[in-house]
Design a protein that fits this description.
By secondary structure, this protein is an alpha+beta fold. Among the domains are: about 1-15 and about 20-55, no CATH class; about 110-195, Alpha-Beta Plaits (2-Layer Sandwich). About 20% of the residues lie in helices and about 25% in strands. The protein is built from five helices and seven strands; from the N terminus they run αβββαββααβαβ. The protein has helices spanning about 1-15, 125-130, 160-170, 170-175, 185-190, and strands at about 25-30, 30-40, 110-120, 135-145, 145-155, 180-185, 195. Strands 6-3-5-4-7 form a five-stranded antiparallel sheet. It has a two-stranded antiparallel ribbon with strand order 1-2. A hairpin with a 2-residue loop joins strand 1 (about 25-30) and strand 2 (about 30-40). The longest helix has 16 residues, at about 1-15. The model is unreliable at about 20-40 and about 90-105 (pLDDT under 50). GO terms for molecular function: peptidoglycan binding.
Length: about 200
């Protein structure tokens, strides 16, 4: 029993005083998490047979005081982006409407055409180049199920019929995106309107 205790004590002290640093990277995926060690300086050939017990000190000698433990300097890895799962929307009891960056000339009684909606904000230049340049173009950021979506809005029309005729006159490449007519009042009435004029 004394041999096992002394070997265990020696291993425990060797582990504490060994000064080995191990940096781990936590990888998370939708299926679970995996911890991967990046580096380790701990010897791999240490077995209880190769470790010798520490020599015993005479009874009249006082042990030296242990130095205060130093914080091990480890590199902190950058957090990796985690794909977000769709979360259900939670109704808030105090919902304040954010400020809208809508031009003063735009009336709530007017209509526009929503050309496309994207889940990223990498710009609409590619889509704007395909649109006729005689009408104003807006970007609208909105939140859908807690995630940001960016819509491209084209034109400002006094009636739904005028917007419909403009929709029919759009190039075929734009019609392939499935554009549809929206009223500015529906955009203003949404929970998170954030319109910015692009031209």
């Amino acid at each position: 029993m004394k041999k096992i205790f002394s070997v265990a004590l020696t291993l425990a002290l060797a582990g504490c005083a060994g000064g080995s640093n191990t940096t781990q990277l936590l990888l998370t995926q939708s299926s679970g998490a995996e911890v991967m060690p990046l580096s380790s300086t701990e010897p791999s050939n240490v077995t209880p047979d190769t470790v010798k017990p520490a020599p015993k000190m005479p009874a009249n000698v006082e042990p030296m005081p242990k130095p205060a433990p130093k914080a091990a300097a480890t590199a902190t890895p950058k957090p990796m982006p985690v794909p977000m799962k769709e979360k259900p929307m939670v109704a808030s009891t105090k919902a304040e409407k954010p400020m809208m960056k809508m031009p003063v000339t735009t009336s709530s009684k007017k209509y526009t055409i929503q050309v496309i909606a994207l889940s990223h904000n990498k710009g609409f230049t590619e889509y704007m180049d395909k649109l006729p340049s005689d009408k104003p173009v807006w970007s609208n950021k909105k939140m859908v199920e807690g995630l940001p979506w960016y819509t491209l809005l084209y034109g400002e029309f006094p009636s739904k019929e005028a917007a419909k005729s403009a929709l029919n006159a759009l190039p075929k490449t734009i019609k392939e995106y499935g554009p549809f007519i929206r009223s500015f009042s529906s955009i203003k009435g949404s929970s998170t309107p954030d319109m910015t004029r692009l031209n």
